[in-house]
Design brief:
Helix content is 31%, strand content 21%. It has 18 helices and 25 strands. The strands form 5 sheets. An 8-stranded mixed sheet has the order 2-1-11-10-12-13-14-15, with helices on both faces. The chain has an 8-stranded mixed sheet with strand order 7-6-5-3-4-8-9-18. The chain has a 4-stranded antiparallel sheet with strand order 16-17-19-20. Helix 1 packs antiparallel against helix 2, helix 4 runs parallel beside helix 5 and helix 11 crosses helix 12. The chain is globular. This is Long-chain fatty acid-CoA ligase. It comes from Lunasporangiospora selenospora. It catalyses: a long-chain fatty acid + ATP + CoA = a long-chain fatty acyl-CoA + AMP + diphosphate. Keywords: ATP-binding, Ligase, Nucleotide-binding.
Length: 658
């Protein structure tokens, strides 16, 4: 696609009038072009406490959340809000190139954003604070608890902690922060920060009360007043994005303004024509610390589409309380309230949605279930034969799949899966039942956009599409394997405007993955297809050669096993030279025995035509919730080392049987 050279930023026809190649220029361009058009939306949250109706029952309170309809703010107001926040930070002593942790409203003053996931453990957050030395921390109700614990251990260098949220969400942790002896930081609610006046020479004084929001009686700032933007250079670091990786301490990828703009330019070149700028709405529920969410959200908004913020826990109706007096048992989840047309997610999210739809299908009568699966097979056969959807597939959608579509809002027309490989079965199912699924491939180190499939390619499995036009690619031999560049296979290396500057303060780690002439070694094994598209086989470190000489791609096989409705998560355990595969499994239903789970696994292997070497021979069952016990990254990848460490003794005993 890069026939005229590698893209180093967004280009016409989508970005006429863009004056520079930095994120600050992009924000200015959006505000000027789209002005009063709705840009970003959110739902207000109200805590609902429910007590037992029977006075004889044990005293207990259940807390759920009542959510408002979506509120919207214009492009011009978003820019003004971000400018005010940036200005407020400068009045609290922050300067150009200072680091600001977690939140993303600092581009207008050339400050560097440092990201961290709220799912990271305290040691990882402490490591990031020590390495990046941020001058300010943005926190919300979820992260304030960890922030307060860490500040008690030492807060040198932190000038401000800016927080969001309502009083009932944050007051407890604000009080803890206020009581810290000899604290050097101010506590500021973001609504106070944005009230900094243009031309003011002093910052806001902290109330010391952890106030919920700026008083409604206070004069609101003039959002049309001009705040001088401190424009960075394309080579300046915009973001140090820390990976919540599956092994070791987090590494901070230094992404420059030029890197991010190149990635956004690639996204627009590949799928810009597929967006309907006046009507498309993207639902944003992944953390902004995730490179996929960060780049996709900025790209979609830069194209003039709307962005609706949501929470993973309130996507569906079950977690939302009904509005008082409505007489309903459930409220509207974010998907039904927003009714998005665009959605990005990681494979674990899509696998859960597929299993949720199948659970509803299995409640149907036998004749209706038969019709559903017959329609699924028929529609797939049609789109493979014709290359696109047509009047017949549209009829199948309206007659058979309409109820399933309503579970995700009823209007989805494009989704993106990334972060890890998705299984063929899940990809095919959701493509037919829900909407077109774009398969994306990217890493934090290349700003998340390395390759994507496109709707004009038709429904395709086992490919992530052509490489992004901001990157050049080559495949390098993987020693002692069949993956060689001569066979259009090998480890994927990238070079180009979207490749990171390097890992922050980790020169040795940078040298491990970057060559002297600018190539980034991804560690992923890829295959170039005859049509110029790329397919991902596995990670180099996850290729295991068993004792009888056959190679097994662990992540690929795991995705197949996760297709089983009885398996929620799975981690295959194997080393080179091992006689067979073992696995630790989080079952979909608590109480499953090793014997039952092994039977389920072998049935899944047989139905998927896996080879003997790919068939798991021993199982350890772990009923804990992997999403909250440290076994999963925030992008849904299994932390193989952590799982293995937790079950080391049982695994060692199991190996002895083989």
């Amino acid at each position: 696609m890069a026939t005229q050279g590698l893209l180093d930023g967004p280009r016409p026809p989508y970005y006429d009038g863009l004056k520079g190649r930095t994120m600050a220029h992009l924000f200015e361009y959006m505000a000027d072009k789209f002005e009063d058009k709705e840009a970003m939306g959110w739902r207000d949250v109200h805590k609902v406490e429910k007590k037992p109706t029977n006075p004889e029952e044990r005293a207990k309170t259940w807390i759920t959340y009542e959510l408002s309809d979506y509120n919207w703010i214009s492009y011009r107001a978003v820019k003004a809000y971000a400018d005010r926040v940036g200005l407020g930070l400068t009045h609290h002593g922050l300067q150009k190139d200072d680091c600001v942790m977690i939140f993303a409203s600092c581009f207008s003053q050339s400050m560097t954003i440092v990201t961290a996931y709220d799912s990271m453990d305290e040691n990882s957050i402490q490591f990031i604070l020590g390495q990046a030395e941020p001058k300010a921390i943005f926190a919300d109700a979820n992260t304030l608890k960890v922030v307060s614990k860490l500040m008690k251990k030492g807060n040198q260098g932190i000038k401000a902690i800016v927080y969001t949220g309502q009083d009932w969400e944050v007051s407890e942790h604000i009080e803890i922060l206020e009581r810290i002896a000899n604290r050097q930081f101010e506590l500021i609610h973001i609504d106070e920060l944005k009230k900094t006046k243009v031309g003011s020479n002093s910052g806001n004084e902290s109330t010391g009360k952890g106030k919920n929001k700026a008083s409604e009686t206070e004069e609101e700032p003039d959002l049309h007043a001009v705040v001088k933007t401190v424009f960075p250079d394309p080579e300046d670091v915009a973001c140090i994005m820390y990976t919540s990786g599956s092994t070791g301490a987090p590494k901070g990828a230094q992404l420059t303004h030029g890197n991010l703009m190149a990635a956004i330019g690639s996204a627009s070149a590949m799928v810009g024509d597929d967006l309907e700028k006046d009507t498309d709405v993207l639902i944003s529920y992944l953390p902004m610390a995730h490179v996929l969410e960060f780049v996709i959200s900025h790209f979609v908004v830069s194209m003039g589409c709307r962005l609706g913020f949501a929470r993973a826990r309130t996507l569906m109706d079950d977690a939302v309380a009904p509005k008082a007096g409505s007489g309903k048992t459930k409220g509207l989840g974010d998907l039904k309230a927003l009714r998005p047309t665009l959605m990005a997610g990681v494979p674990t999210i899509w696998e859960r949605i597929r299993k949720g739809i199948l659970a509803e299908v299995n409640k149907m009568s036998f004749p209706l279930r038969t019709v559903f699966f017959a329609a699924l097979s028929t529609k797939w056969a049609i789109v493979q034969a014709t290359g696109s959807e047509n009047i017949v597939t549209n009829m199948i959608d309206s007659m058979v799949f309409s109820k399933a579509k309503e579970l995700v809002g009823g209007r989805l027309r494009l989704t993106l899966t990334g972060g890890a490989g998705i299984s063929d079965e899940t990809h095919r199912f959701l493509s037919m039942v829900m909407c077109y699924v774009i398969a994306g491939y990217g890493l934090t180190e290349v700003c998340g956009v390395a390759a994507v499939t496109m709707p004009k390619m038709g429904h395709r499995l086992r490919t992530v599409g052509p490489p992004a036009p901001s990157l050049e690619l080559k495949l390098v031999n993987v020693p002692d394997t069949e993956y060689t560049g001569d066979n259009d296979m090998g480890e994927i290396w990238f070079r180009g405007p979207a490749v990171m500057k390097g890992y922050f303060k980790l020169e040795e780690e940078t040298q491990k993955v970057m060559t002297g002439d600018g190539w980034f070694k991804t560690g992923d094994i890829g295959v170039m297809n005859p049509d110029g598209t790329l397919s991902i086989k596995d990670r180099v470190k996850n290729m295991v050669k068993l004792s009888h000489g056959e190679y097994v791609a662990l992540e690929k096989v795991e995705a197949i096993y996760r297709d089983s409705k009885d398996i929620k998560n799975i981690c295959i355990i194997a080393d080179s030279g091992c006689p067979c595969l073992l696995a630790v499994v989080e079952p979909a239903h608590a109480g499953a025995s090793e014997k039952d789970m092994l039977k389920i696994i072998k049935e899944q292997a047989k139905s998927a035509s896996l080879s003997k070497s790919e068939t798991i021979q021993g199982v350890v069952v772990d009923d804990e919730d992997w999403s909250s016990n440290g076994f999963m990254t925030s992008s849904g990848k299994v932390k193989r080392r952590e799982v293995r460490k937790a079950h080391a003794k049982v695994i060692d005993e199991l190996w002895k049987k083989f």
